[in-house]
């Protein structure tokens, strides 16, 4: 007997109009049934999107009104960015200070796998990232992107020297810059790490030398020394280029970015722009147009100025005709600094950390929970909100997914693609299971689900109880918080959940020893975790 056709099989011979209609409907259902894959493939098959990553400096989770409706700082342009894109309400930096987070963004790897175990670099520090390591920029350039960096680098580069092989200091003293030859190019700069174009300064805006470097070459030889000691406006004494004006650095970086976008939009190839702002970090320098606009203090004025520039960035994209297929990511490198003056802001009803404990430098949520927005009109539904825990290290894997390439075992070891979340904010395809945080003194925390295990007593940073405070050793060596029930981290429940503490400690141990938190072959960390300073800075081995 001839086998009957399956319901899903079609005989194309002699098809009438009705059959053709049914076939069309069937094909449409197949497409809709796999719409997420189709959309994902379309990212590759159609014109690849431009990608702009805007990193604010020391901006608190509670400073953006879209994330903190009780906040008093007006941020209409960034709020609109969130309304037109996707807001991530559980986003974190890998560290609560500048350099470590920037390392993770560029490499997709936790900074403590590098030689940098705690603290930050200075304006004269040598390059932290070796040229052999894949970065987001080098990965995208291989896929045809033009790659640009504009802003605060703070990952070290090697200044040309007048003599010897050492600058002669760590970068905290005015005498630490005398051996730099500003007339010669620097080595191991952003252009050696995959950026086609690079323009910026070496450290934070309060760290000398105050010199712009463009494509590896200082734009001027500093002939003056500047210093400021104001409450909000202070910066350290150091050599300053003739074209470097502290209060114009943020506006200058935005102007450069607008020009870069306008120029690259004329080309057929997509572009990637990493815009790393030096603000609202100290020196807190809103221009005259923005002074007193917030009614709070200069820090709030500075935040409002950044917001206005973000509105201009959106307008630039629209004018250039590339807004629809450009991904704009806006976030911060850590929580707000106490330099913003929490007391003054609090008296006026504003808390830069919102409901969360602590601030910049801390292992508490205020140190590393940050606003995070992704707008991509061609791909992301406006007004979307994701409650998934993400980390700033996730940029590398996300970009790899967008351009349909696989990361090697020694690339993006702590990076998970967020692309599935762009169409389904709670997608089970997003593979991050746990996230590691570190504080300024190198203390660890591991977050998994609602639980966060802190492996130190106190803040590990600048808020009380501080690492060296009197009586700190009398506090429990571990802190466990259920962030769903206790987002303010007020109730340490470590003694009630020994099983959770042990399980999270073991997972952290495996992440350290495997050299990765993603799946793949075991990788070496760049330096020894058994050295004395490491053990002093954490209670990782505590019983």
Automatic annotation (TrEMBL):
Sequence ranges assigned to domain Sulfatase N-terminal in this UniProt record: 49-402
Coiled-coil blocks: none
One Pfam entry name: Sulfatase
Record carries keyword Oxidoreductase: no
Ranges of compositional bias, category Polar residues: 515-530
Recorded superkingdom: Bacteria
Name the UniProt record assigns to this protein: Sulfatase
GO molecular function, one term: metal ion binding
Keywords: Calcium, Hydrolase, Metal-binding
UniProt entry tagged with the keyword Hydrolase: yes
InterPro entries: Alkaline_phosphatase_core_sf, Sulfatase, Sulfatase_CS, Sulfatase_N
Family indicated by similarity: Belongs to the sulfatase family.
Disordered: region residues: 512-535
């Amino acid at each position: 007997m001839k086998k009957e056709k399956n319901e899903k099989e079609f005989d194309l011979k002699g098809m009438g109009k009705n059959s053709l209609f049914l076939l069309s409907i069937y094909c449409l259902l197949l497409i809709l049934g796999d719409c997420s894959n189709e959309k994902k493939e379309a990212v590759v098959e159609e014109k690849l999107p431009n990608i702009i990553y805007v990193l604010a400096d020391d901006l608190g989770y509670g400073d953006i009104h879209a994330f903190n409706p009780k906040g008093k700082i007006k941020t209409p342009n960034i709020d609109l960015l969130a309304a037109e894109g996707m807001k991530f309400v559980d986003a974190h930096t890998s560290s609560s200070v500048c350099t470590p987070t920037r390392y993770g963004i560029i490499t997709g790897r936790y900074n403590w796998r590098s030689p940098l175990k705690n603290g930050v670099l200075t304006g004269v520090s040598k390059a932290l990232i070796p040229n052999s390591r894949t970065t987001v920029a080098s990965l995208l350039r291989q896929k045809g992107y033009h790659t640009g960096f504009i802003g605060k680098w703070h990952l070290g580069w090697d200044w040309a020297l007048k003599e010897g092989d050492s600058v002669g200091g760590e970068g905290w003293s005015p005498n630490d810059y005398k051996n730099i030859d500003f007339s010669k190019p620097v080595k191991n700069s952003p252009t050696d790490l995959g950026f086609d174009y690079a323009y910026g300064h070496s450290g934070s805006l309060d760290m000398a030398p105050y010199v712009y470097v463009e494509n590896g070459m200082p734009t001027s030889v500093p002939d003056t020394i500047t210093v400021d000691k104001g409450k909000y406006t202070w910066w350290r004494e150091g050599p300053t280029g003739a074209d470097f004006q502290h209060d114009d650095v943020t506006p200058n970086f935005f102007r450069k970015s607008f020009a870069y976008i306008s120029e690259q939009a004329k080309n057929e190839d997509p572009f990637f722009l990493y815009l790393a702002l030096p603000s609202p970090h100290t020196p807190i320098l809103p221009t005259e147009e923005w002074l007193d606009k917030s009614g709070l203090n200069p820090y709030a004025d500075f935040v409002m100025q950044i917001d206005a520039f973000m509105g201009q960035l959106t307008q630039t994209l629209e004018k250039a005709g590339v807004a629809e297929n450009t991904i704009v990511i806006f976030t911060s490198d850590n929580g707000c600094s106490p330099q913003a003056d929490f007391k003054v802001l609090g008296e006026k009803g504003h808390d830069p950390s919102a409901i969360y404990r602590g601030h910049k430098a801390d292992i508490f949520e205020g140190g590393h929970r940050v606003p995070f927005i992704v707008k991509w009109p061609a791909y992301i539904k406006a007004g979307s909100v994701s409650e998934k825990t993400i980390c700033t290290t996730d940029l590398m894997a996300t970009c790899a997914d967008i351009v349909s390439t696989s990361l090697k075992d020694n690339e993006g070891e702590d990076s998970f693609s967020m692309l599935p979340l762009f169409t389904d904010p709670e997608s089970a395809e997003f593979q991050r299971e746990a996230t590691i945080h570190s504080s300024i003194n190198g203390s660890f925390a591991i977050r998994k689900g609602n639980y966060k295990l802190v492996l130190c007593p106190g803040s590990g940073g600048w808020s009380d109880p501080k690492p060296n405070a009197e009586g700190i050793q009398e506090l429990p060596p571990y802190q466990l918080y259920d962030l769903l029930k206790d987002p303010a981290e007020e109730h340490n429940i470590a003694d009630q959940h020994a099983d959770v503490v042990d399980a999270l400690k073991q997972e952290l141990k495996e992440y350290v020893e495997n050299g990765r938190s993603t799946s793949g072959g075991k990788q070496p960390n760049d330096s020894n975790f058994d050295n004395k300073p490491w053990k002093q800075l954490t209670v990782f081995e505590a019983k």
